Amino acid sequence: MRHGKKTNHLGRKTAHRKAMLANMACSLIEHKRINTTVAKAKALKNFVEPMITKSKEDTTHNRRIVMSRLRQKDAVTELFRDVAVKVGDRPGGYTRIIKLGNRLGDNADMAMIELVDYNELYNAGKSTKKKSTRRSRRGGGSSAAAATAPAAATKAKDAKKEEE
Q1: Which UniProt keywords are listed (predicted)?
Q2: Average pLDDT of every residue of the chain
């Protein structure tokens, strides 16, 4: 039974799995998107998103924590310098998994995992979107119409006085 076991071991020993996820995370940070299997993409998402959250606050402690997991200085530098600035206002959900179909050789489910803020195709219309306000059902529209009605009535009275 696998009660309470949250991580997918991916058929590997612990050291191999940690090294593979660290390498995949470095590739994701460097290239902004990578193709892999669906199981590895889901495991990578759980591995890399806490590190992106840590990179939003640039302290020595956070850099050391991320460095201990990634083990590549260039990837850590790019994560804290470029990626953290781009995702600074996002409250989570930094990666997106898009399923691609099956691999020809062994019929494995393939997926593309990418950093959300670096895909210009999906983010094209979102930059121009303005923040909408909530509208209530209780007389919000009728009070605005009632406020403009007296102004229109006074304009009509003024126009009559000018004619006389």
Answers
A1: Ribonucleoprotein, Ribosomal protein
A2: 87
Q: Domain containing 103 — which CATH number? A: 3.90.1030.10
Whether 2 is covered by a domain: the verdict is no
Q: Which residue has the higher pLDDT, 25 or 150?
A: 25
Query: Is 9 part of a structural domain of the chain?
Result: no
Tens digit of each residue's pLDDT (9 = 90 or more) over 102-137? 999 999 999 999 999 998 887 776 655 555 677 777
Q: State pTM to two decimals.
A: 0.74
Whole-angstrom distance, CA of residue 74 vs CA of residue 108: 31
Range of the domain at 31: 14-118
Does residue 51 contact residue 84 with C-beta atoms inside 8 Å? no
